[in-house]
């Protein structure tokens, strides 16, 4: 039975966008009936299948971060080029940019559980291949490029299925809570993984990080296999028809809450989500902190992100305004970090950046999912993921090139400044549409400037 604190989800099965006025689809969405209790913060854990999923997710995230840090550092050491690190990121995310919507069609038409098992099995084989090459001393940069590209193809299938599968695990009542918990787990793994990877790179080399990820992928497949099928809340598969992708795109374009969340995700993804590329440059070229320092900086980002993810589980309402503001705050924190004189002050700002980034990511993800009908959610989410992950394919190349061409400080300033400008522009657009009100109150200095929903 749903707890009182999570019982209200008015837009889990929304009307078609054509029947909803603009003000309704961008207004605050009430996601709880009262102030959340500590118990309700982890309400989704009451579901057995979701506990299995979360355990596997936690282990997999730690191993994935270990592989990501090891991969980026090994490429930097083999090539001596930050641009090469950016190319690796671009190759891993490019398939989502090009093929992402087709992953959403698969998620709407076929078993999400089966798709995840296939994708994770493929990821295990790729990680095992990288481990063998690294541990035998035969790994070359082109090997990493090729595996990154194939892993990107796996992500095309994995990500939309994973996003929609959460609803089958917990149902609509606990969906918002499960999304926030998943983000918290991802960031907790992001704290542990980079730290372990930093120690491992120094002590035994990066090859064991790939081996650990291979084992974690196998464990995920096992957890998916032992779930109770009878307890899954299955959605009716969408029938095959012409124009399925176009239907998803039209749905996204008609709903401002989804559209503007996706637009902000695009700006953040292209300019600000390739942060590990810039941090590799800062750790190696600016602070001379080596692999351990690189792992530490990633861990500090994850500390802030974990706090942000946990804070998102306490959120009473979903607002488009909040999504836009948190994206702007994330960009602002990166711009401020560009002026920090030491690694410790830089790291402190990275904690703030991680916090703001996760408030944005969880808010946008929740708003897009809860505002979308289940029958089309896979396609809409795949478009959102295409922008969010695919944008990093462009961003990886751009950030790596900027870091080498104009220096890490200027590259980070641009990475933060563009999302700030985008947030301001979207805010002005919403204000002109009559959906946001900017109010200056000279009589109340503590609330001099307010941004309100009409």
From TrEMBL:
Record keywords: Cell membrane, Membrane, Transmembrane, Transmembrane helix, Transport
Does this UniProt record's set of keywords contain Methyltransferase?
no
As for membrane topology, the entry says: Multi-pass membrane protein
Q: Which Pfam families match?
A: MFS_3
Residues forming the Major facilitator superfamily (MFS) profile domain are 49-434
Q: Which domain of life is it from?
A: Bacteria
Q: Where in the cell is it found?
A: Cell membrane
Q: Where are the transmembrane segments?
A: 50-70, 82-102, 114-135, 141-158, 179-202, 208-227, 257-283, 289-311, 323-340, 346-368, 380-403, 409-431
Q: What is this protein called?
A: MFS family permease
Lineage runs: Bacteria, Bacillati, Actinomycetota, Actinomycetes, Micrococcales
């Amino acid at each position: 039975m749903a707890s009182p604190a999570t019982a209200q989800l008015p837009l889990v099965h929304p009307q078609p966008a054509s029947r909803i006025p603009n003000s309704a689809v961008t207004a605050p969405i009430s996601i709880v009936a009262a102030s959340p209790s500590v118990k309700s913060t982890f309400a989704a854990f009451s579901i057995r299948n979701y506990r299995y999923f979360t355990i596997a997710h936690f282990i997999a995230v730690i191993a994935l971060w270990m592989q990501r840090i090891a991969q980026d550092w090994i490429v930097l050491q083999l090539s001596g080029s930050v641009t090469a690190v950016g190319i690796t990121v671009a190759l891993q995310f490019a398939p989502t940019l090009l093929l992402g919507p087709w992953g959403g069609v698969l998620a709407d038409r076929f078993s999400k559980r089966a798709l995840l098992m296939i994708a994770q099995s493929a990821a295990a084989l790729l990680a095992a291949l990288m481990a063998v090459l690294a541990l035998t001393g035969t790994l070359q940069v082109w090997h990493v490029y090729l595996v990154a590209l194939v892993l990107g193809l796996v992500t095309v299938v994995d990500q939309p299925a994973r996003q929609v599968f959460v609803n089958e695990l917990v149902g609509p009542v606990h969906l918002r809570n499960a999304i926030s918990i998943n983000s918290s787990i991802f960031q907790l793994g992001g704290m542990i993984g980079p730290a372990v990877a930093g120690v491992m790179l120094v002590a035994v080399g990066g090859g064991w990080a790939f081996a650990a990820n291979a084992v974690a992928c196998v464990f995920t497949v096992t957890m998916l296999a032992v779930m109770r099928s009878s307890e899954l809340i299955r959605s009716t598969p969408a029938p095959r028809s012409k124009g399925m992708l176009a239907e998803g795109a039209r749905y996204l374009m008609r709903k401002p809450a989804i559209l503007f969340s996706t637009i902000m995700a695009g700006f953040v993804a292209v300019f600000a989500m390739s942060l590990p590329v810039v941090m590799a440059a800062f750790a190696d070229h600016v602070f001379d902190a080596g692999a351990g320092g690189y792992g530490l900086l990633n861990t500090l980002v994850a500390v802030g992100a974990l706090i942000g993810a946990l804070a998102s589980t306490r959120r009473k309402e979903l607002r488009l305004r909040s999504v836009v503001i948190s994206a702007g705050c994330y960009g602002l924190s990166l711009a401020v970090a560009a002026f920090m004189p030491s690694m410790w002050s830089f790291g402190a700002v990275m904690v703030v950046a991680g916090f703001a980034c996760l408030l944005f990511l969880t808010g946008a993800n929740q708003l897009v999912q809860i505002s979308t009908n289940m029958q089309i959610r896979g396609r809409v989410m795949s478009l959102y993921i295409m922008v969010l992950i695919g944008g990093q394919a462009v961003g990886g190349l751009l950030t790596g090139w900027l870091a080498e061409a104009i220096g890490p400080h200027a590259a980070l300033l641009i990475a933060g400044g563009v999302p700030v400008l985008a947030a301001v522009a979207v805010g002005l657009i919403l204000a002109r549409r009559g959906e946001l009100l900017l109010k200056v109150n000279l009589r109340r200095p503590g609330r001099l400037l307010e941004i309100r929903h009409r």
